[in-house]
């Protein structure tokens, strides 16, 4: 606890230097990142300031990072007393509301933001565009209640960078096992011939070298691998070296799975892919058993922030989340279902069946 407090105080002293960097040269207000222009902009007097952008994102050595990782100390961790979410904002800012539950029960927490991200996919469009995109998406949801569709507004959409780790690894695997191939054969029966399928098993053993590039592991509860895969891909050309300018006016989710845990997850993703590669190499259809032992060399990682616009909608005591990929505009989420809309659809359906039956009985 003491150690945490000390580090937190350190945070406060570094604050002044950064404050100046985000101050508007015109009026002194805080500037925020404008995704449409990719500049820092003042909401009050409209002045904008460019900042240095670097596309040469570097991989980091994994082993080194376990020992000495750079701390993300230009930030403040905010925790929400209402929903329990923890998120990170630039330490020059004050959080007004929680992007997850939209209440103002937020407070500065003594927690630290962990290691510093080294790459970021900046938001490429503003909340206003995210609103248009989400509205279009909701329009196609026939059973979603009108009240829900109406709630989609730029004001309710919050840009939150979600954390993920990507890993590169040079693998070398030694394997042995028994694989099966489904074959057909013709057999003689009492009445003639018949084709049947059977599995032909054969032993395999060997080695496999494969380089894995950017195996990605989502590192927060609402940005796990499943939701990452749904929201992916992100625009590769837009990735930049992380600087705090991109965070100005936005927040980032505090990672819940650390680098070590994510690397364990990445290894099992890689293991599965290696097994698939081996099975495919032999054109096998089934696996009787397959032992694979894999060595990882030159493992590097990137700690990446992914841009997601979130919309949280409360309908009948339940919270529904919509997530919009801030690069591509891909929308993922479930809408609430209106009982009346479903009922009307069912009635129309039943009506059509009845009509069809009537026509059939009377005219067929
Ligand atoms: Zn200004
Ligand atoms: Zn909250």
**Number of separate helices:** 7
Strand segment count: 15
Ions, cofactors, ligands: which are bound? zinc ion
- Parts with pLDDT < 50 across at least 5 consecutive residues: 1-19
Account of the protein in words:
The protein is α+β, with helices and mostly antiparallel strands and about 375 residues long. It has two domains: about 1-335, no CATH class; about 335-364. Helices cover about 25% and strands about 35% of the residues. The protein is built from seven helices and 15 strands. The protein has helices at about 1-20, 60-65, 125-140, 145-150, 225-230, 260-280, 340-364; strands at about 30-35, 40, 50, 60, 75-80, 85-90, 105-110, 120, 155-190, 190-220, 240, 250-255, 285-315, 320-325, 330-335. Strands 4, 5, 6, 7, 8, 9, 10, 11, 12, 13, 14 and 15 form a twelve-stranded mixed beta sheet that branches. It has a three-stranded antiparallel beta sheet with strand order 1-2-3, with no helix packed on it. The longest helix has 25 residues, at about 340-364. The chain is flat, with a radius of gyration of 27 Å. One zinc ion binds next to loops.
Helix-strand blueprint:
Blueprint lengths: L1 H20 L9 E4 L4 E4 L5 E2 L10 E2 H6 L7 E6 L5 E5 L15 E3 L10 E2 L6 H13 L6 H6 L5 E33 L2 E27 L6 H7 L8 E2 L9 E3 L5 H23 L4 E30 L2 E8 L5 E3 L5 H25 L1
The protein binds zinc ion (2 copies).
């Amino acid at each position: 606890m003491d150690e945490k407090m000390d580090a937190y105080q350190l945070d406060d002293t570094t604050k002044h230097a950064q404050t100046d960097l985000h101050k508007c040269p015109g009026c002194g207000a805080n500037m925020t990142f404008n995704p449409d222009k990719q500049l820092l902009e003042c909401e009050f007097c409209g002045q904008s300031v460019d900042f240095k952008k670097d596309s040469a994102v570097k991989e980091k050595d994994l082993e080194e990072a376990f020992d000495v990782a750079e701390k993300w100390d230009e930030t403040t961790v905010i925790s929400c007393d209402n929903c329990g979410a923890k998120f990170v904002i630039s330490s020059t800012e004050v959080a007004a509301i929680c992007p997850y539950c939209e209440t103002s029960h937020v407070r500065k927490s003594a927690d630290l933001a962990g290691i510093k991200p080294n790459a970021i996919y900046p938001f490429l469009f503003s909340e206003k565009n995210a609103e248009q995109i989400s509205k279009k998406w909701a329009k196609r949801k026939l059973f979603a209640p009108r009240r829900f569709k109406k709630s989609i507004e730029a004001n309710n959409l919050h840009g939150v960078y979600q954390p993920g780790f990507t890993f590169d690894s040079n693998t070398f695997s030694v394997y042995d096992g028994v694989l099966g191939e489904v074959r057909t054969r013709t057999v003689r029966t009492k009445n003639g011939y018949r084709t049947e399928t059977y599995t032909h098993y054969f032993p395999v053993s060997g080695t496999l070298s494969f380089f894995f590039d950017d195996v990605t592991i989502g590192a927060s509860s609402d940005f796990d691998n499943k939701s990452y895969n749904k929201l992916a891909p992100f625009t590769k050309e837009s990735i930049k070296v992380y600087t705090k300018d991109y965070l100005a006016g936005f927040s980032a989710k505090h990672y819940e799975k650390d680098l070590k845990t994510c690397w364990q997850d990445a290894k099992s993703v890689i293991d599965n892919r290696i097994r698939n590669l081996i099975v495919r190499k032999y054109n096998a259809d089934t696996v009787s058993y397959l032992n694979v032992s894999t060595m990882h060399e030159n493992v590097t990682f990137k700690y990446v922030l992914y841009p997601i616009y979130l919309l949280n909608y409360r309908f009948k005591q339940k919270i529904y989340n919509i997530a919009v990929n801030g690069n591509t505009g891909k929308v993922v989420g479930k809408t609430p279902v209106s009982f009346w809309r479903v009922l009307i659809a069912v009635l129309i359906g039943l009506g059509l069946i009845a009509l069809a039956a009537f026509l059939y009985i009377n005219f067929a």
